[in-house]
Amino acid sequence: MSRTNGAQTANVPSESTQTSHRVIIADSRWMTEVDDESVHLVVTSPPYWQLKDYGHEGQIGFDDSYEDYVNNLNLVWDECRRVLHPGCRLCVNIGDQFARSVYYGRYKVIPIRTEIIKFCEAIGFDFMGSIVWRKVTTTNTTGGAVIMGSYPYPRNGILKIDYEHILLFKKLGDAPKPTSEQKQASKLTDEEWNTYFSGHWNFPGERQDKHLAMFPEELPRRLLKMFTFTGETVLDPFLGSGTTSLAARNLGRSSIGYEVNTEFLPIIRQKVCGENPCLFEDAPEIIVSERHVDADDREARLREFPYCFHDFVKVAKQVDPRTMIFGSKISNSHLPR
């Protein structure tokens, strides 16, 4: 059921491949439901800064200052480091984001990826490069197909943000040894290897429906085939509509996903299980946590980090995010969350 953009799939998971899928409704800054070093891959696309109000008190990005936004993401990356097995990968899909002059007093592009790279290296990841994903935007995007700047005259034209980055990190240490059966079932074709390990990917973004900024199944599918063996477990700390779990199920991998908004549960169930959930033994287990993030605990954890991010850019003035348009993924169609 996965997409076949780019290379064709080499292997189909065995009928005997047993997988499990957990959806945890909780804040991924504290992933207490996941054991240390129990995950073999993290694939995620974090929420953008001040892009969308998901209607939840614990959300990251909306109503945050840029400083708080980066530090909240850093709490998540630190938890990813804890639960990730040594020798395994963290993959973060993130795009450059622009802020209109009303916020900083001038137009500027915010390279969020630079802060992610800096912090992840500081806590013990090796940065292994990035893939530039050039996508066809499928919504009315502020940084996509819209002509901006001084068009058609020189000097103040503005680049279209029709690309995103997939940052690749490796946790130090030795990875678990796969069995010969796992190796055979997970082998890539020459075409897949050459396509996936290229520094540029070209395939469309997902048609936006019911959830903001969904990435296509092709993206986690490639990363799962590149960095995991059958039977292993992938984590998505910002699960959203459940695309990572769907890709894991289709490839014979287990999954764990965190999401703060219970409104996404029907979408996740539909995506992972299809029309007849009872037909799948690996239907997702839903865990709803009553845990809340304590501000004092947050500050205590930030003090333990190698550094705390500080935004030295002086904000022009306080602006209500609900009146603004930020980033490269915003839809003007008022789709339901």
Question: Explain this structure to me?
Answer:
With about 325 residues, the protein is of the alpha/beta class. It has one domain (about 20-290): 3-Layer(aba) Sandwich (Rossmann fold), CATH 3.40.50.150. About 25% of the residues lie in helices and about 20% in strands. It has nine helices and eleven strands. The chain has helices at about 65-85, 100-105, 110-120, 180-185, 190-195, 220-225, 245-250, 265-275, 295-305, and strands at about 20-25, 40-45, 85-95, 95-100, 110, 125-135, 165-170, 200, 235, 255-260, 285-290. The strands form two sheets. It has a nine-stranded mixed β-sheet with strand order 8-6-7-3-2-9-10-1-11. A two-stranded antiparallel ribbon has the order 4-5. Helix 7 links the parallel strand 9 and strand 10. Helix 7 packs parallel to helix 8 (about 265-275). The longest helix is centred in the first third of the chain and has 18 residues, at about 65-85.
Largest sheet at a glance?
9 strands, mixed
The amount of beta strand, in percent, is: 15-25%
The name of the CATH architecture is: 3-Layer(aba) Sandwich
CATH class placement: Alpha Beta
**Shape annotation:** globular
CATH topology: Rossmann fold
- Termini separation (Å)? 24 Å
The overall number of domains is: 1
Label the structural class: alpha/beta
Calculate Rg over CA atoms.
Answer: 20 Å
